């Protein structure tokens, strides 16, 4: 989703006064012009960040934007591996992010040395890595995928190779169901998406019988089985916009609701409840705030830096993904 360059923030978060929100947003837009910067934000970012961003989207859309931006500075509002991907694609550009500690449970689950050890057990492995992994893991991979193109990437993988899919076993399982192609799956998961259970989705479905359930493929199979649509965050927007339904149950991170409400006015989005607490917020994505965005654009820091060789090898795998993704 593209924002008009001077869009005013629409969402208010408790704890930030409207005048401060307005001032910070105006200054961020001025800093953007001064540095010839582009602000890329993931769909899970807080509303006020989404509202100052030039582009808001899923991992695939963000990587595509990063690959083609003419800006000198890329300000990446998402988690660390996403900003790293932007740097992999733009070694000569400055890539900054509001909080360098914004990690991801999937990335943590797959250290590069353990992946290399597994790869050594089968020289015929063709490694497909979900983009939610470190640059070092990308550098060990043959091709990257996102939830938006995983099926296509697997369908284009060489037929004579044994597929190894890392690090999300749920996304990998979903792609296996769709393609019929067996794969060895790394045992990682998203700590947010595995919170939804068959029991809670069954319950909320009963309360809203006319509302389709829209789930992210990082959800478990037990939840995916109950969903009317399983797709990436970007495809959720298209699905809900095009559907004749007026109410939707959304099983993904809470930031998505802002984007959906903004792009599908008049429709109602019900966050799928979790068994415990408000577990549908990713603590990593929510480390980014408007204040930290302002600070990082003022100081042009923290910056993403990568060892040249890691970046070079990772770039091959990311570019292969972009090439396959662009095929008809
Ligand atoms: P999308 O690429 O579908 O936006 O997913 C990214 C992600 O981190 C999901 O948890
Ligand atoms: Fe990682 Fe899950 Fe957060 Fe997405 S929602 S960034 S997969 S921890």
Quick description:
The chain is of the alpha/beta class and 328 residues long. It is 43% helix and 15% strand. Strand 9 (213-215), helix 11 (221-224) and strand 10 (229-230) form a beta-alpha-beta unit.
Describe the structure.
- The chain is 43% helix and 15% strand.
- The protein has 15 helices and twelve strands.
- It has helices at residues 18-35, 47-52, 59-68, 80-89, 105-109, 112-119, 135-139, 150-155, 169-179, 198-207, 221-224, 233-242, 256-263, 290-299, 308-326; strands at residues 37-42, 55-57, 73-77, 94-96, 125-130, 143-145, 162-166, 183-185, 213-215, 229-230, 247-251, 268-271.
- The protein is globular and about 60 Å long.
- It starts with 17 loop residues before the first helix and ends with a helix.
- Residues 79, 104-106, 132, 190-192, 218, 253, 282, 284-285 line the site of iron/sulfur cluster (SF4).
Order of helices and strands: HEHEHEHEHHEHEHEHEHEHEHEHEHH
Bound molecules: 1,3-dihydroxyacetonephosphate, iron/sulfur cluster
- Average pLDDT: 94
Query: Any idea what the radius of gyration is?
Result: 19 Å
The span between the termini is 22 Å
Please give the largest β-sheet. Answer: 4 strands, parallel
What would you call the quaternary organization? single chain
Low-confidence runs (pLDDT<50, min 5 residues)? Answer: 4-12
Helix and strand composition category: alpha/beta
Strand content: 5-15%
Largest sheet strand order: 2-1-3-4
Q: How many β-strand stretches? A: 12
